[in-house]
Amino acid sequence: MTKKVIMGFTLMLILLVPAMSMHASAQTSQSYTITGAGSTFVFPLMDNWRVEYNKIHPEITLNYQSIGSGAGIKLLEQKSVDFGASDAPLSATDMKNAPGVLTIPESIGGITIAYNLPGIDKGLKLTGPVIAQIFMGNITSWNDPAIVNLNPGTSLPNQKIVVAHRSDGSGTTYAFTDYLSKISPDWKTKVGQGKSVPWPVGTGGQGNAGVANIVKTTQYAVGYVELAYVFQNKMTYAFVQNADGNAFVEPTLDSVAADAAAAGTNLPSADGDWSQVSIVSQPGSNSYPISTLTYVMIYKDLSTVNGETQDKSTQVLDFLNWIIGDGQQYASGLLYVPLPDSIKKIDEAGLAEVSFSGGAVPEFGPVAALVLAIAIVSIIAVSSKSRIGFNPKI
């Protein structure tokens, strides 16, 4: 009788295991909030991705904090977000602070020189060296001969230039100062390149939106602003001389794509060193010279992220695969260049390496595993004292 009771209890436990596993799976398939933070440059596109992905996956919410690339990388280093976003690749110091991070390019965009000159439409012509001198405070008036000579027939005002720049650590600043360092030795030696630099002059704004707001609301202002923000806010912007020095190029989807295409070869793998990657000032008559890749960064082992679970890590990975795949169809409408196939292949290979090593398989959780272990032990105990021919091979 005792044997029958034990066997009955054991069989009941075994039957409970699938039900408990299914219940756990049902619970984990309810809803998830994916967290990301960083680049304001990519925010218009990232926010659109949030909306479009939620339409096909209503159980997934993206909480993306547009706080600047520098702050996003800090949160990534602290393992406080599922992914960081930056227009600046990880530096050698960043890589030491965040070992095991993969770099996944997810879009390409342009940085405009936006200005507020009453009565003057878009298309003011500027060269790289002149832009550098404006942001260094060496050219201080709109009717300076250096600007006038580039724009014959344009009546430029005798007004002081109000320079606007980023106040936060910024990938947009990184790309802009990368450009200035390449075309102006004076800038390179006196100011340099970085997410934050010692601006010689100007007023700081938080994020691309902050700089755009200063320029739009301040007469005679100039600032560097991502292309999507300029078009969304109907701002005027300069045509910038190309790297070949033979044309002034308007920042458009096609001219940014031309610049990116010239630089889109020989890129590292997702787990490689991206710190020297730059696509600014590429050759070509229609290449807009102030362009940049923008990236998401994710830990190769997502179990190292605070609060991560295996179920959620699967959703994070699915979302990132979507943005580099089907999500690219939304890039052009917001004036970001869709990723070329060569970069998509790098991304796909990188995301294929992402794993979660710190938890149980969600379809067979720890409680279910314990129940099954008890059941197996019970069967072994009963069979050892009976004639039941059960010889489990473990």
Describe this protein's structure:
- By secondary structure, this protein is an alpha/beta fold.
- It has a domain at 110-291: 3-Layer(aba) Sandwich (D-Maltodextrin-Binding Protein, domain 2), CATH 3.40.190.
- Helix content is 41%, strand content 16%.
- The chain contains 14 helices and twelve strands.
- Strands 1, 2, 3, 4, 6, 7, 8, 9 and 12 form a nine-stranded mixed β-sheet that branches. Strands 5-10-11 form a three-stranded mixed β-sheet.
- It is elongated, with a radius of gyration of 28 Å.
- The two termini are 28 Å apart.
What's the SSE blueprint?
Layout: H1 2-28, E1 32-38, H2 43-56, E2 60-66, H3 69-77, E3 83-86, H4 92-97, E4 101-115, E5 125-126, H5 128-136, H6 145-148, E6 162-166, H7 171-183, H8 185-190, E7 203-205, H9 207-217, E8 221-226, H10 227-232, E9 236-237, E10 239-241, E11 248-249, H11 253-263, E12 291-299, H12 310-324, H13 341-351, H14 366-384
Parallel strand pairs: 1-2, 1-3, 5-10, 6-7, 6-8
Antiparallel strand pairs: 3-12, 4-8, 4-9, 4-12, 10-11
Helix pairs in contact: 1-14, 12-13
In short:
This protein has 394 residues and is α/β, with parallel strands linked by helices.
CATH architecture of the domain at 110-291: 3-Layer(aba) Sandwich
Supply the helix-strand structural class: alpha/beta
Give the percentage of residues in beta strands: 15-25%
Q: Distance between termini?
A: 28 Å
The biggest sheet, with number of strands, parallel, antiparallel or mixed sense and barrel status, is: 9 strands, mixed
Which regions contain 5 or more consecutive residues with pLDDT less than 50? 1-28, 359-394
The percent of residues in helical segments reads: 40-55%
CATH level-1 class of the domain at 110-291: Alpha Beta
How many helical stretches? 14
CATH superfamily of the domain at 110-291: Periplasmic binding protein-like II
CATH fold-level assignment of the domain at 110-291: D-Maltodextrin-Binding Protein, domain 2
- N-to-C order of helices and strands: HEHEHEHEEHHEHHEHEHEEEHEHHH
Structural Rg: 28 Å
| DSSP E strands, number | 12
What is the residue-mean pLDDT, rounded to a whole number?
A: 86
Q: Give the overall silhouette.
A: elongated
